[in-house]
TrEMBL record:
Homodimer. GO terms for cellular component: cytoplasm. SUPFAM superfamilies: PRTase-like. Residues 59-152 form the Phosphoribosyltransferase domain. This is Adenine phosphoribosyltransferase. Belongs to the purine/pyrimidine phosphoribosyltransferase family. Its EC number is 2.4.2.7. Keywords: Cytoplasm, Glycosyltransferase, Purine salvage, Transferase. Pfam families: Pribosyltran. It comes from Polypedilum vanderplanki. Pathway: Purine metabolism; AMP biosynthesis via salvage pathway; AMP from adenine: step 1/1.
């Protein structure tokens, strides 16, 4: 996707404010911190508009935005509210009431379990899944599986940051769009 001049300026502002923390959470990892960028209110507004414009242009007919625990929630609610569509959280095990679907997935540092409320996505509903970061692709893959278990259709996975050297997209069978890519992390 090519960005118009205003979105390119928004993207560059966001890029300029991403924090980096070497050797976190363990030696050899250069952690990219989106929360550092969000300390600036202009970056918050720019990021919201950047993501919203992308979704409206490329996925105007979706029924819901799915946000991953926890940073994906920041984006999913804002986009859903602006588009007046549903917002569905995918959470870590034990955080959602009612009947849930579950999927275990691999992380860079171990395994975890994601859950979604079984009735949150209706069969045939079209969604985009959003999160802050794509690394190994484990959490996005699990989210895609959960939506499919509920009968939903995942149109795309959207992330703000992608660590390309880890090549997490190879684990996904749904298109991925990332706003910022880091080659050597």
């Amino acid at each position: 996707m090519s960005f118009d001049q205003i979105d390119l300026e928004r993207l560059n502002l966001l890029k300029s404010k991403i924090g980096e923390y070497p050797d976190f959470p363990k030696k050899g990892i250069n952690f990219k911190d989106i929360f550092t960028a969000f300390r600036d209110g202009k970056v918050c507004a720019a990021t919201k508009n950047l993501v919203l414009n992308y979704v409206k242009k490329n996925h105007p007919n979706i029924d819901a935005v799915v946000g991953l625990d926890a940073r994906g929630f920041l984006f999913s609610f804002l986009i859903a509210a602006e588009m007046e569509i549903g917002c569905v959280p995918i959470r870590k095990k034990g955080k959602l009431p009612g009947k849930t679907e579950k999927v275990e997935y691999n992380l860079e540092y171990g395994t975890d379990i994601f859950e979604v409320q079984s009735d949150s996505i209706k069969p045939g509903q079209k969604v985009v899944i959003i999160d802050d970061l794509l690394a190994t692709g484990g959490s996005l893959k699990a989210a895609n599986e959960l939506i499919k278990k509920c009968g939903g259709i995942v149109e795309a996975n959207i992330v703000i940051l992608e660590l390309r050297s880890i090549n997490g997209r190879k684990n996904l069978d749904v298109p991925v769009f990332s706003f910022i890519q880091y080659a050597d992390e």
